[in-house]
Write a structure and sequence with these properties.
Number of helices: 20
Structural class: alpha+beta
Radius of gyration: 24 Å
Strand content: 15-25%
Helix content: 25-40%
Distance between the termini: 71 Å
Oligomer: single chain
Largest sheet: 8 strands, antiparallel
Length: 489
């Protein structure tokens, strides 16, 4: 096999995905360089990289979005290629174009493809023109004065969505016609704040759908394959928590149809490199949702069942190599589940949490993609995802049991996480029966309530009262104050 045309890759990202990319670069014999803000100085990715270059900005996030600084870091590292990871600048056509203009290989699709498929309205119209199913919708910019009336004509319930961005931000479900105009203004305000783009569209909202996505891989020679589907229906506020493959909802015939549709959409877009086509599935029918022109957070479950290193394939495709895999070479073996460990408190409305990692012990025998280390401060500056726990087993039930044992064995002190919620989901009868939809957690609020923690607190308080110093302190409280009960100022 010919040598790659570059020997150093700059990673324009942080956290667990930066560490994950470095592992593959090492395997390929490539040097890794990373641009990092000082708040990330003690993270695994910075310590693992062959070269770490500090960058700065008004905020930590702003530094990672500063294209000029990223390009300067790549030049300083003498990098011949750049991997954007996911999030941050990974789906910016302007960034991809600037990287290429600087003479650096962009590890991702062409800027024109990002422009086409990264804009939700443009992508939706493109997919519909090419004969693939989409939901009925009304697009504001087609005729702004009639947007509300055209939205109402689509039929309730409705989902108001921003044209750009992702992660569920700016999305509103509307069931009451009287609430539509207020929801539009709220969505527009949030979209402008998060993405700097207030354009909206409205589409029919399907009750209790499943979220199914298909991994695709293409090269510059017109070869395109799929690597089967992932089910990502366990979500909170439109953000994924647990992903798995294969989906328990797909028959072999439906799997073939949805994977063929994904390849057809990618082929129509002349897609190169790794990408994901997302669909909504309801009552056996599926509809195009969007295409992510980058690596997905949940890519490890695909790697576990297919044995394909997706980042290596991204590097090869960007280097101009022909895809070594044909569709018949790719098989799905066993079942994989990924758990997203978030710094958040599900029982308090999933609010982000912070703290210093005082003790960290990961379970053995499973794959861990982690972005944190002992002593690191978890701050609210970035997405709350700390790590991913990925398991692989011969069957879905065995994978769920393995994942449950793994999350129960995890030890992380110093920062609240959603680990208990993940454990409760994995033991839930509906989850184990594969009865999932994107409203699963809203339908089962007891899973986030953490009654066990409430009982544990009472147990620990009782135990503490058995110790002499605590008992003495309790007895020393004046009678007047004890009469206040649990009242707090």
């Amino acid at each position: 096999m010919h040598k790659l045309p570059f020997d150093t890759v700059l990673i324009a990202n942080r956290g667990e995905i930066a560490a994950r990319i470095i592992k593959t670069l090492r395997k390929l014999g490539l040097r890794s360089a990373i641009a990092y803000h000082e708040v990330d100085a003690l993270t695994p990715a910075v310590s693992m990289a062959d070269l770490a270059i500090p960058i700065s900005g008004r905020t930590p996030v702003a530094s990672y979005l500063d294209i000029a600084q990223i390009i300067a870091a790549a030049r300083k590292a003498n990098a011949g290629a750049l991997h954007p990871g996911y999030g941050l600048l990974s789906e910016s056509a302007e960034f991809a174009r600037t990287v290429i203009k600087a003479g650096i290989t962009f590890i991702g699709p062409a800027p024109e493809t990002i422009e086409l498929m990264g804009d939700k309205i443009r992508a939706r119209n493109f997919v519909q023109r090419n004969g693939f199913p989409v939901l009925p919708c009304a697009i504001e910019e087609d005729d702004p004065p009639t947007f509300v009336s055209r939205a109402q004509a689509v039929g309730y319930p409705l989902l108001v969505k921003p044209t750009g961005g992702g992660g569920g931000k700016g999305m509103r479900i509307v069931r009451d016609p009287d609430a539509l105009e207020a929801a539009i203004e709220q969505a527009r305000s949030e979209a402008r704040r998060c993405f700097g783009d207030g354009r909206l569209y409205v589409e029919r909202y399907l009750e209790m759908p499943r979220h199914i996505e298909v991994q695709v891989l293409g090269d510059a020679f017109g070869n395109l394959v799929h690597l089967f589907e992932r089910e990502c229906s366990v979500q909170r506020r439109f953000q994924k928590i647990i992903e798995e493959t294969p989906s328990p909802a797909l028959s072999p015939e439906l799997r073939t149809r949805i994977c063929d549709a994904a390849v057809g959409i990618a082929r129509a877009a002349q897609y190169q490199n790794a990408g994901t086509v997302e669909f909504i599935l309801s009552e056996g029918d599926f509809y195009f949702l969007e295409m992510n022109t980058r690596l997905q957070v949940e890519h490890p479950v695909t790697e576990m069942v297919t044995g394909v290193d997706l980042i290596a394939e991204q590097v090869y495709a960007a280097a101009g190599r022909e895809l070594a895999l044909s569709q018949s070479d790719i098989a799905s073996n066993g079942h994989a589940i990924e758990l997203r460990l978030y710094a958040e408190a599900p029982e308090r409305g999933y609010v982000p949490t912070t703290g210093k990692v005082l003790l960290l012990e990961y379970p053995d025998g499973v794959r861990i993609d982690s972005g944190i280390m002992l002593g690191q401060h978890i701050t609210p500056e970035f997405d709350p995802m700390l790590a991913k726990i990925i398991v692989h087993a011969p069957s879905r039930i065995e994978a769920a049991m393995k994942a449950h044992r793994a999350i129960r064995a995890l030890v992380l002190l110093g920062c609240e996480t959603n680990a208990s919620l993940l454990a409760r989901i994995l033991a839930d009868e509906a989850f184990l029966g594969g009865q999932l939809h994107t409203g699963y957690l809203e339908e089962n609020p007891h899973l986030a309530a953490d009654n066990f923690a409430t009982g544990l607190s009472a147990f620990l308080a009782s135990a503490a009262l058995l110790t002499r110093p605590v008992r003495a302190s309790a007895d020393a409280v004046p009678e007047l104050h004890t009469a206040f009960g649990s009242w707090r100022n």
